[in-house]
Design goal:
six-stranded parallel beta sheet, Rossmann fold, seven-stranded parallel beta sheet, alpha/beta
């Protein structure tokens, strides 16, 4: 029983959705034949024979190529029983191919891909979700969004992103990276993610971190990530606003803008951090569908402080692996960070709990088994 995956989000692009789809493909491929149709890429070093890329960049060329190549693959291989879409963006392509060739249509949803405020997008993409056999939501919040878009309740399955916990626990040259980046005597608050407005980094600096730095002079905010230039939904220059806030508040000695860093450096930064923060904003136009960075923090045995918005509550157990505060409550956000930075034992206790929790609940083999069940795949089949 095979799967044809159609996705706009796929490596070498980097991001939470890309990470999920990549692990989904890798995990399922261990027992099932999987083919992937995805976007154009300048480099294909990590591709293999069953990845098919659009010959030129752009959404329309990708969609046309996906329909043509998908029809060709499905016509040739009747063992491909599922057409799987990486997001609501590709729902019309998935449904068209599934209906033409009598296959099962399944689409993964992430939050923003359901609520994106564009009438044409809602008409062309989101409304077709209700006709798919299965919608897989990355959180209970995203599942509610899918149902509000007209998807029957019994067609929605919640499957959280997985985590490679061993990767974030593996030994890294933490001291070397700490010295190289000038963090020797600092207490590090770490943010990791693309700098979309919904992440709330600028507001966090202005309304919370400035007070943390005054209370704890050794506090340093390390920001990993850049403007999401390849995103279809996010085009704002958030980074410039962050730089302006740092300059106006004279926080140059307390904030490090690290941009995009290697995977190894990301792991080292998690391991050297004292606290990980995700100060996401509450917004009707955008949403944090899950918060994979919170799983990464827990896998590195680090506590997280985040806002209780979107799917974030699915990624942190409040009071056990981290602290959740109401969106916009910067006083509580500040208090939580200061309390953790001042209490080594509390940080270690939350970190230990989070590490055990993600290994038990979010390990990729467990997540892949949930996908197999949702897709109706024979777990005894071999690729």
């Amino acid at each position: 029983m095979g799967i044809l995956v159609i996705t706009w989000n796929f490596p070498p692009r980097r991001g939470g959705i890309e990470n999920v789809i990549s692990h989904f493909v890798t995990g399922l491929r261990e027992r099932h034949p999987v083919k992937v149709i995805t976007t154009h890429a300048r480099t294909r070093d990590s591709d293999h024979n069953n990845i098919f890329r659009a010959p030129c960049p752009g959404l329309i060329p990708f969609a046309l190529y996906a329909i043509w190549r998908g029809a060709w693959l499905l016509h040739r291989d009747r063992e491909q029983t599922v057409v799987f879409g990486g997001s609501a963006l590709v729902a019309p392509v998935v449904l068209t191919l599934a209906r033409l060739f009598g296959r099962k249509a399944v689409v993964q949803t992430h939050g923003l891909d359901i609520i994106y405020a564009n009438a044409l997008y809602q008409f062309l993409c989101v409304r077709w979700l209700r006709h798919c056999e299965r919608i897989i939501a990355n959180s209970t919040y995203t599942a509610a969004l899918a149902r509000s878009a007209g998807v029957p309740e019994d067609h929605v399955t919640v499957i959280s992103p997985g985590i490679d916990a061993q990767r974030f626990a593996a030994s890294q040259d933490v001291d070397g990276v700490r010295s190289k980046l000038g963090f020797d005597t600092k207490q590090i608050i770490l943010f990791v993610g693309r700098l979309a407005k919904r992440k709330g980094v600028k507001e966090f600096i202005e309304k919370s971190f400035v007070h943390v730095s005054r209370e704890i002079p050794a506090a340093c905010l390390a920001i990993v990530g850049d403007n999401p230039l390849e995103s279809l939904a996010h085009r704002d220059d958030v980074l410039t606003g962050i730089k302006d806030a740092i300059a106006q508040l004279r926080l140059q000695n307390h904030v490090r803008l690290l941009g995009a860093v290697s995977d190894e450096q990301v792991v080292a930064l998690y391991q050297m951090a004292d606290v990980v923060v995700l100060p996401a904003l509450a917004s009707k136009e955008d949403v944090e569908g899950f918060g994979i960075v919170l799983l990464e923090a827990a896998a590195a045995a680090k506590p997280a402080v985040a806002t209780r918005v979107g799917g974030i509550p699915d990624a942190v157990e409040h009071g056990k692996g981290g602290i959740l505060v109401a969106p916009g409550d910067y006083d509580e956000l500040t208090k939580a960070l200061i309390a953790l930075l001042k209490n080594d034992e509390l940080r270690r206790a939350l970190g230990r709990y989070g590490s055990n929790w993600v290994q038990e609940k979010f390990a990729w083999p467990k997540i892949i088994a949930s996908y197999e069940q949702a897709l109706g795949l024979d777990v005894g089949s071999e690729s």
